[in-house]
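User: Before I run my own analysis I want an independent prediction to cross-check against. Here's the chain; please return only the structure tokens and, at the end, one sentence I can use as a sanity check.
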Amino acid sequence: MSKTLFRTRIKFCGMTRAGDVRLASELGVDAVGFVFADGSPRRLQPEEARVLRNAMEPLVDAVALFKDNQVEEVRAVVKQVRPSLLQFHGSEDDAFCRGFGIPYIKGIPMRGLDPEQRAGQAMQLQMRYPGAAAFLFDGHAQGQQGGTGQIFDWSTIPTGLGKPFVLAGGLRPDNVFDAVMATLPWGVDVASGIETAPGIKDGDKMHRFVEEVRRADCHPD
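Assistant: Structure tokens:
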């Protein structure tokens, strides 16, 4: 894909403070993510996320992230937080992900794949998740939590997906330019790379991350 007239979307994930949500909106971030996965240090309760949702500016998407949550938990988040996108990182199937009437992104762990798993991955993903609006390729291994800050081999991203993909896993202000130039993703997703501690965002890192993505977008092909 040519970068001509193309803008890489940016998602800041694992938000836990209203001030960070407001700053993300002011920086022009396209989406902010709220984590509801068990075991995550960034996990929120629906009531907490609803408060953060109210700090968002117009035209910014709220994304709710889950990993093998019960259907009742997802419904509670949908009711209270009103996310515009859902993001699933566990063993959820397409029917489960589609069952809430909201577009969804499926997170795909990329670390530790052997060559046989990589072969034909695009077709496998299309068949397993036909209802996915996009795929998110992350740097964790199967069964692990995302948001660990681990980079994976970008050359293993499957081609021919027929859908947008979001790049995650170990992205930081000092490497996101190279990541965008190398992979030309629809969007990039960052959590730990703009933090001082899990869930605590760093304003300078947030600003620099956005600057570096925009620099890549404006860079000649």
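Sanity check: The helical segments are 18-26, 46-53, 71-81, 94-98, 115-118, 121-128, 176-183, 203-218.
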